[in-house]
Specification:
Length: about 100
């Protein structure tokens, strides 16, 4: 069943059988995509989370550094990473 929809770019009324149609034509789709990309670039410049992540270490980076330190220490001791972590946390048997 066709329904009438107002294009979110140009405001023209169009009909579509699709329940999720928002754009009336390929030209309007291209305009919307350019606007969306420009908005995303502006957000990156304003200091969004992704942009800030490049400037300072995130929790993930510091966690990876700690994992690497633990792996190096386990290698020095000649044991597996899992055994090293268990010994550091005081666990020597499964389920304890």
């Amino acid at each position: 069943m066709a329904r009438k929809i107002k294009c979110m770019v140009c405001g023209e009324i169009f009909t579509s059988d699709s329940w999720n149609a928002l754009i009336c034509s390929d030209e309007c789709r291209a305009i919307r995509n350019r606007q969306r990309m420009a908005r995303e670039r502006a957000e990156l410049k304003e200091g969004s989370e992704i942009y800030d992540a490049r400037k300072k270490p995130t929790k993930f980076v510091s966690t990876m550094k700690q994992l690497t330190k633990d792996a190096i220490e386990a290698n020095k001791r000649g044991i597996s990473y899992g055994k090293y972590i268990a010994s550091v946390k005081g666990r020597t048997k499964r389920g304890v």
